[in-house]
# Entry
Amino acid sequence: MATSKQQYNRKKFTKEYKVKEIQKSITKKTRLKKEYFKALKEEGYAVPERKPISQAKTNVRKLREEKALQGKQKLDEKKEMKRERKKLQKEQVEERRKRELDQIKLSKDKYEQREKRKVRMTQRTRSGQPRMGPKINDLLDKIKGDETYTR
# Structure
């Protein structure tokens, strides 16, 4: 069960309550201002001229429109930055994917070469002896591929 203070606070800290309070204060200020000008007029003092309401409203509207345009420009800039980041991220993902595919292809090629070499090196004669020809050819290929011997 909520205490009366908690219930009061729940009402007090809502958006509707705040809006109502602001409206009350605005109406109170305008009423006081109107009464003050009326009293000044009755006593014979010069009443300061007020801006026409329509002009004040147009100024407020202009300010709001300018703020909206600025906000829209900022929003457009943010959207553009977001697009650029997304594009850059997409390019990075694509580049990483290409590198991974190249790495996989390279490892497959090496694996196939090892398998071919293994098959050649494990050849046997009819009597079960290892064949020397492929082993000698393999050694020759190694020597030809090595830079120290190909000067």
User: Anything to note?
Assistant: Helices lie at 4-12, 15-43, 53-121, 133-145. DSSP finds four helices and no strands in the chain. The mean pLDDT is 88.
